[in-house]
Amino acid sequence: MSYAVKETYYTLQGEGVHTGRAAVFCRFSGCNLWSGRETDRATAVCPFCDTDFVSTDGPGGGRFETADALADHVAGMWTARAPEAQPPFVVCTGGEPLLQLDNALVNAFHRRGFEVAVETNGTVAPPDGLDWVCVSPKAGAELVIRAGDELKLVYPQPEAPPERFAGLAFDHFSLQPMDGPDLEANTRRSIEYCLRYPRWRLSLQTHKLIGLP
User: Fold this and answer.
1) Residue 47 DSSP class
2) What integer is the mean pLDDT of 87-108?
3) Is residue 51 annotated as part of the catalytic site, yes or no?
4) Of 30, 71, 78, 70, nearest to 51 (Cα)?
5) Among the options 15, 18, 28, 49, which is catalytic?
6) Is 66 labeled as catalytic in the residue annotation?
7) What residues form DSSP beta bridges with 120?
8) Which label site among 8, 92, 108, 201 has the fewest CB atoms less than 10 Å from its CB?
9) Is 64 part of the annotated catalytic residue set?
10) Which of these, 76, 33, 27, lies nearest to 55 by C-alpha position?
11) pTM, 2 dp
């Protein structure tokens, strides 16, 4: 199959458990919860989405006809001189990456030595072989992935309270203040929740604070 990619870039992971880790981000085009068009935002499952995943016109984006072609492209963006103990790291994100990420691409990344992570809304079953699964659930969207490495919840979502997900089989639970005009208040609420329920860790979007993509 071919792969539609909005953008690819080498940076530091800005949020969640892997904050600060060097990674190539591979942002796939398309999502099953929103068209990405501003005219449709009011009817989106996640109207607070802050990501442009429409088309393939971003830096390093394009349409890749094979898994090997995309994996070679991503490998070419890894510029670190990493020791063997720290493998190169690719974060597959979107949009909703699991609409396109398949076994062939995971295997192609692995053949090039990459550790493969996915950031997903959890509504699509993942391929085998992923090294890190981070699910960010959305109110009104049924979870298919109910176990993984990290559950990262944008907070607050009135119809998706943290306690609804606390019993799921994830190794890490991250609470991320919802961006937007109420960010300061949402951050205070997130801090208070994490202090009250220490199983949850505060996740800030540090890339926005320091000017990274």
Assistant:
1) T
2) 98
3) yes
4) 30
5) 49
6) no
7) 135
8) 201
9) no
10) 27
11) 0.95
